[in-house]
Amino acid sequence: MKTLSALVILLLTMISWSTKNPDFTSSETTKHEDSLKQRIEIFNKELENHVIEPNFTINMDSSTVTFLDFKIDSFSDENGLVIKVNNDEIKTYRLQTQNIVWTAKDSVQYANQISQIKYYKYEKLLLFQITYYPCSGLGCGANYQIIYDLKNKKSFAFGRFRTGFDMNLYQYQTDEKTYYLSKSFQGRNEQLKDTITYELFELTPNLPLRLSEYSAKFMYENDFERETKFESKWIK
Question: What's the pTM?
């Protein structure tokens, strides 16, 4: 009983002290938040250092563009958006995303226009960012990326929801392979927090391969107002 009484007194004393000294809790919280922000900044800086610069980036303001030996058109048939690269057609509505977009993989039937094109000469790849216009509500946070391999004329899709509109390829000195970075959104959990997961896909001739051993997870609260948790295991 004496031991229990002593523990109770100690607990009450600590509670009383922390109540009288709110700066202690505030200081510890600030240190944690500063450390979290620093880790995220370092991670994002490392990502930037490994971005492959495209030879061309075109922000589309019409349905047709011509550059180098390419003529690219986009139009809608009875099923959805079609992208025409010279004489080859990409029927985007037949594609499903390689990554989880919002809790699950998604079809690409929603999009109806190209918003951006990137061309990578050495990799022989064209990247198309496609969106829906005019959008409304949650639809404005959705976009898709089509990777078109000029060597074998195969197409693969990725998707985003509330995870930004960047579209980049990456390369690391360890293997010099080409990677695409996907971002997946997981909506509010029981603690009302959102999670965004980054994953790398190696771009191979037949199918993008997800590197399951690598990922980075960001947890937010108050509708992305503040990061509360970050953990990563990433390629060097």
Answer: 0.81
